[in-house]
């Protein structure tokens, strides 16, 4: 055991308790600590310390009640005690201490040197005899110190913007400043509901008994009517439910309304003056000062909260407006891009009407005219030739019109995006093209492709057109090779607007290729880089592919050289 003795520190404030423990740490003491009176009483009975240092205002059991029980127990009644309290309660605490046989007191904030001197003196002397009964009321209860405490409280609550924290701080401060066992603050809402904040040194059972008492109900009724209440309750008055056995545990109550100039918010009540028979008129004045301050602080906090809510609401609205504007700008940009594409297609269509569509018509017209002027014998070969040319022109016209209709459809059909396996789409397109190219030995190099979110029907057309073109333009090769795979855009890829690092799909062949000087014409309607008698086609397929890719948020471009084949690349938004 330590030579200096065993000391028990009972203090609910963790920082104050730690400071006391620290001030005694360099002494040869065996130190114990407790956070409330109940815990301290248990340690007193089991550890039998040589000295008790206790705060007055603590939860579950206050210091005054703790020492009263200690003095009633013969096994520990002679234990020296030091009372701790705020400086503005110093005079009251000294009188209370004398009534319980407590010789020494300490005032907060603690002076470490005074703490050590007081502890040494208390351990060296035996406690004086208790005078018995409650201490006498003190005329000068430290008014200046209380005023200082009120100023400190005012600064604390007026610097707070959280209503809940203000209510909790008020309860703690009211109980501490007024030396009450219980402080309760009740906010009554417009709908009649109650928000109750309590700071108590009582057990749950004692609180339940108190709140169900007739006297408490009478006080609440008075407070809710806007008045104040001061009850120096006599010990034989019942605090239990009407008709229940009487007990004299609670002897005083004080209550004041909480109201600003414009509104009543509720009430503050404190119960059981520690160490004295009742609350005083001075206590009532202090309680009114606390209530007035908390009313203004609480109202300010509510207004601040309402203002903050309004700021948050407006910020959310502004964010939503910005989002809508961005969405609108995006939609306008998309519609503008679609309109530009439509205009280009319209220009191409106008050109095709003037040239491409008229060419078959001129052919048909010329051969019909020749038929009309034909004067040869019946069964001659010449009319048959004219009829075949007319039929060929009609087929070309039909193919052109079908191509235009297909382009129009992919430009306006509603897209159905869904997760797709591009590998499956490629396989289907290869199988179909292979059937049409029977007799040709094509080397297919198919690499795994990433998954994508796309319209499967439209994407099938992309692969069908690109793979079909690769087969067609590699026809002059004895060993055609067609390769399909994926890659990543690099910094050196200057022929595209795709960003570096973006993944693309490619279809590559070793066919006739083309001159890159004319690459920009590839994706226009009826644009062809090879003569019709060399390679059949309408010049609409790549325009259709380009439109589908653009609708998927991607871009398409080509790389080629004459006689060395071509490679078409495209990106898609939503491709893994």
From TrEMBL:
It comes from Steroidobacter agaridevorans. This is histidine kinase. Residues 352-576 form the Histidine kinase domain. CDD domains: HisKA (cd00082), REC (cd00156). Residues 307-345 form a coiled coil. InterPro entries: BphY/WalK/GraS-like, CheY-like_superfamily, GAF, GAF-like_dom_sf, HATPase_C_sf, HATPase_dom, His_kinase_dom, HisK_dim/P_dom. The keyword Secreted does not apply. GO terms for biological process: osmosensory signaling via phosphorelay pathway. Its EC number is 2.7.13.3. It catalyses: ATP + protein L-histidine = ADP + protein N-phospho-L-histidine. One of its GO terms (molecular function) is phosphorelay sensor kinase activity. The lineage of its organism: Bacteria, Pseudomonadati, Pseudomonadota, Gammaproteobacteria, Steroidobacterales. One of its GO terms (cellular component) is plasma membrane. The modification 4-aspartylphosphate is found at residue 55. It is an enzyme of class 2 (transferase).
